[in-house]
Amino acid sequence: MNNKTRKEIALFRYGILAPLISGTYDEDKSIKGFFRDAAGKVYTTPNGEDTKLSAPTLERWYYNYKNNGFEALMPVRRCDTGRSRKLDSDITEQIKYLKQEYPRIPATLIYQKLINNGTIVKGDISLSTINGYVNQLKLEHKYSNNKDMRRYERAHINEVWCGDSSVGPYLKVEGKKKRVYIIALIDDASRYITGIDVFFNDNFVNLMSVMKSAVTRFGKPKILNFDNGASYKNKQIELLSARIGTTISYCAPYTPQSKAKIERRFRTLKDQWMSQLNMNDFNNLGELRTSLSSYVDSYNQHIHSSLNGLSAQDRFFSESHMIKRLSDEQIETSFLLEYERRVSTDNVVMIDETAYEVDYKYSKQKITLRYSLDLSKIYVVDKNTDELTEIKLLNKHDNSAIKRKKIKLTGGED
């Protein structure tokens, strides 16, 4: 099983546990109750298959995450491969469920499903062992996930942050007009704008920049509510949410009411801020950013009738005890982009057309890199320990001064 597959399985497992980890499940229920409820649902694995999990399995995953973080959700290679072992309750429950729901499913497909979702390792349990529990025929149907959509408002701050982007004004740069995009995050309970900035591109890197600033200042939300745009629905954002311990909730397609509050804030921003701008007064993005920041500070202090006479700022900080900030180290390591790159024969990897040098032991291998949004810090991830080792820009002049060991050739013993 390669690292990409292991990471996809870890994200799948985190997605199931996210309500418990982020504290968004029904607080009247016990943790054991969460596991029982979760075990009664059907989940689609990274391979596109439907499966059901036992409560003990979910409990084991949860405490692995709690004690050792996101990486602990990645499956590990078994050390007893090739040896026969008894089917445990987790495996038998999944087999019985599949037979109950799909009476004509063949043993070969059930066997493959158990391998794909990480329950068993190929060769650890034989197909003939599984064959005693099943009949033969194809899987025909999958469950549909219908979501209950209702108007809501959270009771406390940092329970839900809504995030979205909007087109802004045109800014003239070197004699050419460039479209500006505004990316913002707003707290659902208080309407407080926790993060906002202007960019020339509406992409997930800039979204993560806004999120990093917001989380650093105001702590992490339990839920991030986004639409289904490419900037918001990708592996980078999923990894980030897993590392900081929050849940991402995506709006159903064609349901703008799902993000009504932030849409209303953008409309107000355009009416009150953008409509009064003279773009000839701005020479660069930094000056426009300063103007926007000044407006947002004023907006956050404005009295809202929907907040019982409080401003967004007063409402937000009235529950300052709900702010759970992350440590500087957690912020630094969580908000890193992650990609795989192939190392050249001369120990170089390319990032955004820039060459970086890695240790010679990685020559001609595919490695995982994690790096900061501004590329000031770039690390190689050890595939066995997940430790981070920083790498630097390629410096050919320094390399020319390094003495290489010479290999002595001899004619044999005297």
UniProtKB/TrEMBL annotation:
Residues 152-320 form the Integrase catalytic domain. PROSITE patterns: INTEGRASE. GO terms for molecular function: nucleic acid binding. GO terms for biological process: DNA integration. InterPro entries: Homeodomain-like_sf (IPR009057), Integrase_cat-core (IPR001584), RNaseH-like_sf (IPR012337), RNaseH_sf (IPR036397). Pfam families: rve (PF00665). This is Transposase InsO family protein. It comes from Clostridium beijerinckii.
